[in-house]
């Protein structure tokens, strides 16, 4: 059995790539948007430390415009078959799916005021309670007051870790009725919608329900309209196939899609988890087998988990190459027009982060930093309209995690037309992808990785 050393580094010819979007340049506070050779050297040293200590398996991919300026692969794509990770490796991208769901909903409801449109307007099967009056804007912005199904142990007992035979065959609607219809919270939001931020996967699960409902209604197929909530609709109206039609096919993301447990996906990564990971005990379905060979003896294959619990909140897979296509398309009108992009990338709900000025947009975490001074931006009010955020640099980020094994950190440095992708198929502590991504951003912004204490401890304890 091979020991799966880090794949050879391929630092590509670095080009002094300028931002392509003149509108972004006019508004940008970023003074130097080139990634220098010195910064590439620092980035490589940071990445290699995580790879060499076997706390990170995956792909690191940094782009500037349409150019790739750095890439590195390390660890196994699959231990059993002695296959290493490459840029063609497919990763489960988890909550990065939410940006795709948000874009589709915005397009399907183009011209509508999402602050006025409600759940009850679009889901006829939803209970006639106070949550039916929650706006689609509040769903998108994580400010609905609808509880997060991921916090419900019944999800894991009855859905999450083993195949589940649906009561009625309606799948995702049945799931939403059980866990996202507010019945267990007295039929009302836990707070007044729009007044605060609370992360909830139910928000985007319901968005998937709405997308499917709209697709069926727009088809004019009476038989299919009558099926919703009673029996399974045609596959062409499933969320994953709508994503394929409306986004993936349009921008040639041929290696991406919605994951199915019975699918066959060339270059799909196997997920792995450290045997002492604190969350492994929650896997009450199919426990992992023994660890891998040699230096991987303490690393287990991930336990089974039912993709039903992810759906439009996190069911997709992709490659770094395909996600670069997604990144570049979002600078054009191929997916969203200018007004839609402004709406999607706007700050709405302050997340209350203690380490950075962060809001939630439509399917993205929207972050503001001072590109000249390392540290948290002080001026970060609950209401973003009360601050002059234009004096800071803005970037989008998401760390999409799939239970036990895949963590895909995706950052779009909007004002530089650059992206940082750190996709992993191994969870040791669960912070590794985010540590690498943050250190890369710090090198780009401040010429120093500024490694945190928790990230250093993760390395020291390897």
Explain the overall architecture.
By secondary structure, the chain is an alpha+beta fold. It has 14 helices and 16 strands. It has helices at residues 22-27, 37-52, 97-108, 119-122, 136-140, 153-160, 172-179, 201-219, 222-227, 239-248, 320-329, 338-344, 432-446, 453-460; strands at 58-64, 67-74, 76-78, 83-84, 91-92, 257-258, 272-274, 299-301, 316-318, 349-350, 357-360, 365-369, 393-402, 406-413, 418-424, 426-427. The strands form 4 sheets. It has an 8-stranded antiparallel sheet, sandwiched between helices. The protein has a 3-stranded antiparallel sheet with strand order 5-9-6. Strands 8-7-16 form a 3-stranded mixed sheet, with no helix packed on it. Strand 10 (349-350) and strand 11 form a beta hairpin. Helix 2 runs antiparallel to helix 13. The chain is globular, with a radius of gyration of 22 Å. The two termini are 22 Å apart.
Which helices and strands, and how do they pair?
Layout: H1 22-27, H2 37-52, E1 58-64, E2 67-74, E3 76-78, E4 83-84, E5 91-92, H3 97-108, H4 119-122, H5 136-140, H6 153-160, H7 172-179, H8 201-219, H9 222-227, H10 239-248, E6 257-258, E7 272-274, E8 299-301, E9 316-318, H11 320-329, H12 338-344, E10 349-350, E11 357-360, E12 365-369, E13 393-402, E14 406-413, E15 418-424, E16 426-427, H13 432-446, H14 453-460
Helix pairs in contact: 2-13, 3-8, 7-8
Low-pLDDT residue spans:
1-26, 162-169
Shape type: globular
Rg estimate, integer Å: 22 Å
* N-to-C order of helices and strands: HHEEEEEHHHHHHHHEEEEHHEEEEEEEHH
Largest sheet: 8 strands, antiparallel
Structural class: alpha+beta
Helix content: 25-40%
